[in-house]
Specification:
Blueprint: E1 6-9, E2 16-19, E3 28-33, E4 48-53, H1 70-78, E5 83-88, E6 103-105, E7 108-110, E8 118-123, E9 134-136, E10 144-146, E11 152-156, E12 159-161, E13 164-167, E14 171-173, E15 176-180, E16 183-185, E17 188-192, E18 196-198, E19 201-205, E20 208-210, E21 213-214, E22 221-224, E23 227-231, E24 234-236, E25 239-240, E26 247-250, E27 259-263, E28 266-268, E29 271-272, E30 279-282, E31 284-288, E32 291-293, E33 296-297, E34 304-306, E35 310-314, E36 317-323, E37 330-332, E38 335-339, E39 342-346, E40 350-351, E41 355-356, E42 361-362, E43 384-388, E44 396-399, E45 413-416, E46 419-422, E47 434-435, E48 438-439
Parallel strand pairs: 1-3, 4-5, 5-8, 6-9, 7-10, 8-11, 9-12, 10-14, 11-15, 12-16, 13-17, 14-18, 15-19, 16-20, 17-21, 18-22, 19-23, 20-24, 21-25, 22-26, 23-27, 24-28, 25-29, 26-30, 27-31, 28-32, 29-33, 30-34, 31-35, 32-36, 33-36, 34-37, 35-38, 36-39, 37-40, 38-41, 39-42
Antiparallel strand pairs: 2-3, 43-44, 45-46, 47-48
């Protein structure tokens, strides 16, 4: 359709609406009668379009045999009202075999007036790795900007690098962006969000965000009143000049509405000059089945710095993080709820304690676990390994049979922040086996947890 006019005739409460396909003017005429149970058949309204782009493409039709530039493809896609797939090819109908033939240099923008329901940008044909297709910003601005609030954009199987901007070196998002099987690395923000600056919705899946820099905050991801979900992904080696080496979550006063969800993922080796080496939170952050390891803060909160926000940590491992002043693991100036998790860090595992929801293990006494709790303080035999490849899509910290964490959770149904949860994921009530979108019946690697007695932390010992 080319217009969005909708005319209603004889509108009636609980009406049965009979809808015909749009006419040539893009108008839809709806008639109504006083019967209930409306049935809408909208098949055939929208079409799926396919466009092709290559690094040397100069056409305007963006066909497979006459590809256009990526900028032209985005321009063409913006006027489409259906779903659009943009295939990236090296030349006419040729797959991207390496970055040398599929390097797209430029700064790409989906405008705020774009109409499509969705746009998928992915390689044409199979690629061996995400580095075979590269979007390079050439240090001249943000690599990819999504300003279209009504269009969901998926970036798949590619590397996003070389971006340099005030906010959002790699990606600046004010709409919805899904990053899948991709790498975001080597980008810079002179203010916030070296890898990603988000003011909308971002979903990162099976991807890596590494080696990005922000002069101010959030070198990996900066979330500004948006929503972020990171699943089966790694955020590592990012560096912030102030706060939030890996993730900076800014939620203002609406803490319970603004959420960053970290699921089955690893946040490691990030650094903040001030606070929050791994995560800096001023909203709501949920960390489930995940590992936060080897991050550093020159002041407070090597792993997590919670600044008057809310953090929920479940079935996760927080280890090997450092802070020069306080809270090598967690610096809490808000609310931190924790269950089924491990803490072993330098500079104190916790500053100002946490809310103990059960079955946590700490190598020191800084987290304030009660002696009558199922949680334990000053545990000497955590026997944690180093961060490494232990199977699964992300690196984890393994435990052995001699670890106190190996068989720690024996009565797994607990209450976390008012929600009943089975830490081993074996409940007959299915809703208790998921928490904040994570499947608790498996550890971070995808290994099944025994239903009645399982390991604390992100790694299940079997």
């Amino acid at each position: 359709p080319t217009t969005s006019n909708v005319n209603f005739t004889a509108a009636t409460t609980n009406a049965n609406m009979v809808i015909s396909q749009l006419n040539s003017s893009g108008q839809m005429n709806i008639s109504a009668s006083a019967t209930a149970n409306a049935l809408f058949d909208v098949s055939g309204w929208f079409t799926a379009s396919t466009l092709y782009a290559s690094p040397s493409g100069g056409g305007t039709t963006c066909s497979q045999t006459s590809p256009c530039s990526l900028s032209q493809a985005l321009s063409n896609a913006s006027s489409d009202s259906g779903s659009v797939t943009i295939y990236l090819e090296s030349t006419s109908a040729a797959t991207c075999s390496s970055a040398s033939v599929c390097k797209f240099v430029g700064n790409y923008t989906l405008s705020s007036g774009a109409k499509p329901i969705s746009i998928i940008i992915e390689p044409y044909g199979a690629v061996s790795s995400s580095s075979d297709v590269v979007l390079n910003g050439n240090s001249a601005g943000t690599v990819f900007t999504d300003s279209a609030s009504s269009t969901a954009v998926t970036l798949e199987d590619m590397e996003i690098t070389g971006g340099s901007a005030t906010d959002g070196g790699g990606i600046y998002n004010a709409g919805t962006v899904n990053v899948t099987d991709s790498t975001i690395s080597g980008n810079t923000a002179t203010f916030n969000g070296g890898g990603i600056y988000n003011a909308g919705t971002v979903n990162v899946t099976d991807s890596t965000i590494s080696g990005n820099t922000a002069i101010n905050n959030g070198s990996g991801i900066y979330d500004n009143f948006g929503a972020v979900t990171v699943t089966d992904s790694t955020i590592s080696g990012n560096s912030a000049g102030t706060d939030g080496g890996g993730i900076y979550n800014y939620g203002g006063g609406s803490y319970n509405k603004i959420a960053v969800n970290v699921i089955d993922s690893t946040i490691s080796g990030n650094a903040a000059t001030t606070n929050g080496g791994g995560i800096y939170n001023a909203g709501t952050v949920n960390v489930t089945d995940s590992t936060i390891s080897g991050n550093s803060a020159d002041t407070d909160g090597g792993g997590i710095y919670d600044n008057s926000g809310a953090v929920n940590v479940t079935d996760s491992t927080i280890s090997g993080n450092t802070a020069t002043t306080d809270g090598g693991g967690i610096y809490n100036a808000g609310t931190v709820n924790m269950a089924g998790s491990i803490l072993d860090n330098t500079g104190g595992n916790c500053y100002s304690g946490v809310t103990d929801e059960g079955y946590n293990l700490s190598s020191d006494a800084t987290c304030g676990f009660s002696s009558s709790s199922t949680s334990k303080s000053s545990v000497s035999n955590l026997d944690l390994g180093t961060l490494g490849n232990n199977g699964g899509p992300t690196e984890t910290v393994a435990i052995t049979s001699s670890s106190a964490a190996a068989f720690a959770i024996t009565n797994p149904v607990v209450t976390i922040n008012g929600t009943t949860v089975d830490l081993c994921g074996g409940s007959t009530t299915s809703s208790e086996n998921t928490y904040n979108g994570a499947n608790l019946s498996q550890d971070q690697r995808g290994v099944s947890r025994p239903a009645t007695s399982c390991s604390a932390g992100a790694y299940q010992y079997n």
